[in-house]
Amino acid sequence: MRIKAEDCVFVQVDVQERLFPHIQNNEELEKNLVTLVKGLQLHEIPMIVNEQYKKGIGETIVSLKELTDIYPHFEKTTFSCCGNEDGLCAIKDTGKKIVILAGIETHVCVLQTALDLLEEGLQVVLVTDCVNSRKEKDKEMAIQRMIQAGVIPTTYESLLFELTVNAKNPVFKEISKLVK
After folding, report:
1. CB under 8 Å to 180, separation ≥6 — which residues?
2. What is the CATH number of the domain that holds 131?
3. pLDDT single digits (tens) 111-149
4. Element (H, E) at 114
5. Where are the beta strands (DSSP E) in the chain?
6. For residue 103, how many other CB atoms are within 10 A of its CB?
7. 63: CB partners within 8 A, 6+ apart
8. pTM of the predicted model, to two decimals?
9. Which residue in 107, 120, 154, 156 could disulfide with 36, CB within 3.0 to 4.6 Å?
10. If DSSP codes are grouped into helix, strand and coil, which group holds residue 27?
């Protein structure tokens, strides 16, 4: 299946200030997420930001908050973003059939969101270098489980160039600069 920009919505899961410092390789993850978001913005992909229990876990980390403040945000207490009816409706209301998924933690909120989105009949694209957990094994097992369930794995660079399609695309040079 080809991933086309016009078919996609991006769902960011729980990249929040009090949890983020405990995630392994969080500096690389932050860099990857910022690059992904900027690239998706160049492609004009709609975005939905989810935050788990903000009173306890805090706001989205500053570097992403600055980029995503203009998009709909949904606070949740369920691990799956689909457990919040308003959040699920926002995803469905975009009319997009492909959900690009990234965030933390891979084995909890990202996994449960992916499984629920599949049950809703949506195709899920997991940006594997834009997800992480506190423990490597948890991340690895969750990615395996999602792939077995039908999620399409990719990396942010591969995805951004797939969405770009052609070196003549007006955003090609900006995408190329982002990923260097």
Report:
1. none
2. 3.40.50.850
3. 999 999 999 999 999 999 999 999 999 999 999 999 999
4. helix 111-119
5. 8-13, 47-52, 73-76, 98-104, 123-132, 152-154
6. 27
7. 30, 33, 34
8. 0.96
9. 156
10. helix
